[in-house]
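Class, study these two lines:
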Amino acid sequence: MNSKAEKFDVLVADIEQTGNKWFTKEVIEGDEYGTVVYHGRLEIHGNSLPVFIVVDNSVFSYIRVAITTTSITAAAIKKVLPKLNELNQQYKVTKYYVNDEDSNIYADISVPTTDDTFEPAVLVNLMLEVIKPHLDEVHPDLLKIVGQAK
């Protein structure tokens, strides 16, 4: 485990005292960076999107949001890539991509942090105050493009 994860654990314990069991913790055993992943969910227009907050010994921590939870087709990938590129150029904080392994769309938000400057609340606030409103705006269009709109 790493010192950033220890700090994040304190925040999770505080959150859980309010009755919210938002995060589950996964320690990646044998990882050279001491990676710990906190799994959660973000509600966007009736969709429960998986969220992964990843902290390790590197100078970056990041939030990953699964934009789709069902693989998209090769044809849908072709259709959505221009929109993902547009979003990547338009929004500095969020980088969208289609994962080669599972053909899902993800958004990554990297946050440079050292052990000394790491503030776990910044990651949670970034997710709730920046990422969620952004996804409220763009998520329906992305689902429509890939044929997964409700």
Notes: The chain has a mean pLDDT of 94. The longest strand covers residues 36-44.
